[in-house]
Amino acid sequence: xxxxxxxxxxxxxxxxxxxxxxxxxxxxxxLAGCDRLSHNESFVETLKSAQHLSRAAHKIVAPRPAMAxxxxxxxxxxxxxxxxxxxxxDADYVALRDAGFAGYKLSVGGLVARPAEFTLDELxxxxxxxxxxxxxxxEGWSCIGKWKGVPxxxxxxxxxxxxxxxxxxxxxxxxxxxxxxxxxxxxxYESIDFDDAHHVQTILAYxxxxxxxxxxxxxPLRCRVERQLGYKQAKYIRAIExxxxxxxxxxxxxxxxxxxxxxxxxxx
Length: 268
Description:
The chain is α+β, with helices and mostly antiparallel strands. Helices cover about 30% and strands about 25% of the residues. The protein is built from 8 helices and 10 strands. The chain has helices at about 1-30, 35, 40-60, 90-100, 120-125, 150-160, 195, 255-260, and strands spanning about 105-110, 115-120, 130-135, 140-150, 165-175, 185-195, 205-210, 210, 220-225, 235-245. The strands form 2 sheets. The chain has a 5-stranded mixed beta sheet with strand order 2-1-10-5-6. Strands 3, 4, 7, 8 and 9 form a 5-stranded antiparallel beta sheet that branches. The radius of gyration is 18 Å and the shape is globular.
């Protein structure tokens, strides 16, 4: 029995690595040709169809209660790799960082009955979850870390989403660059649906490897959505907004990288 289990685990790992490689290759190919293909209506519609198929298939294979793999203490990387924004230069973030995030407040609003704000101390005082999971990047690398944070579902329960709310949008401190951005609104943002928002492993992490979350990895607060690729794991979160659609938010695709050509549902 043990030998069979080991063989199955190895096959599952091989499939995961193959999937990550395929996603990375597809992402690179998409970005390389996005200037030309973004004006091709049939190509864009094909991408949209593939994205919905990917999401639907993932919901069947790994429905809402399905858990991402968790690991043991011996698997944790001594240094958790960082990428993307590493130290936002935005004035409001710099002021908070220099003060040790003492004045930080997370706002939760949009389509909710009870808009709220939470200090970092208030978030840390709430019931927490600790999990050792693997971060899978669309670039093809992965890293295992130990995360501690407050379940996102607990904040949503307090805010009481209205019946119209369908998505959770994370607004971040770090300004980005890209052809779809305007000087007025260039900060990173991401989004997930309510299934992933209420998943037990979806947390707002404030600790990494038993220490306060480093600036390099998204301090003071970042999202962990363990069944999705790394670009869905928003760092430097400043606000959460519940919405019915993405139409009125920037490029209308639900995230910074999505506006640049990535698929919205980055499931693994």
